[in-house]
Design brief:
nine-stranded mixed β-sheet; 24% helix; two-stranded antiparallel ribbon
Length: 351
Amino acid sequence: MINKTDTKRAVPLVLTAALLLSGCGVNGTSAGQNQKPDGVQEETQVQTAEVKEVAILSTAESRIVADSTDIKAGTGIAYQDTDFSTPEDYFYKYSNVDYGEIDDRVTYYSSTIGEDKQCGVLLPPGYDTSNKYPVVYLLHGFGGDHFDWNRGDCYVQDIYGNMLANNTAVPAIVVMPDMYTAPADTKETADGEQKRAAYDKLVYDLENDLMPYIESHYAVKTGRENTAIIGTSQGGTEALAIGFLLQDKIGYIGSLAPCPGVIPTPYNEGTYWNTPLMDDFTIESPAMAPYYLQLAAGTTDPWCLEPTKYYENVLTDEQIAHTYYLLDGAGHEDSVWENGLYQFFKRIFKQ
């Protein structure tokens, strides 16, 4: 495991909202120069980075689930996979692969704000209402929205579709919320603090409005064993917090380069970045432990590397099972999101 003393003495960071935009291709980085395989229709712009450091606190080592072998959370299947590499062609789009369908203008009523909101929904290839599917809630970064995951340079549909074609992931419905949970007419003029406050209300919209809508309008498997959440940057912050706040409803949690604000941290004290969503990582009972919990960041991330390390140390201190890894040379960028999504999709819903 990493040295806890060093990470907890880290110098406080200064986060700038304008620099934390996160989503498909937002950082303008280019793809690695991999040779295109036969049958490629088009190439998604994807960077690759080598995994530098991996730390796994398995369920066998966790005080939360180690003595609860009769529950699914204690089996630890997701933690048994210690391979964090990716195939060279995992981001290509092939002419003979069905990548499913995205509707990025799904409208539902949000009682949380008293008006309609929109989200995106990616249905897996061969979606059939006579079957039922688990659900992944995928959260964008600061300043983004649900459209981020369906832009021309986005990779989510390509990566997931290839994984399904190769039987390395379980077919699921991917829901892409707009984290801005406030009246739509305030969105354009909202400053950083107001946006952060609106994002922090997503937990109420998700629990009371969006999840019930998805479960009533799509062929969904319900229950925490069939529900996952993952996010990037500020979305990683919200996903990590929501996973613990709604642990009776969500069983899989992914957090990619999360910002401060999940629990109290020494970073950006006195600013809206430091406002914690909860006091600590608390598991209500062994049966509520995550089936899988994943943290990742890049080694050169100027804003969110230290908060990610901090969260990992606290989870380790609390003996809550999780995986944590760093991508060598990667910053706050797409290569972290791409690899993180691949690793997450690879391990969820397989308990």
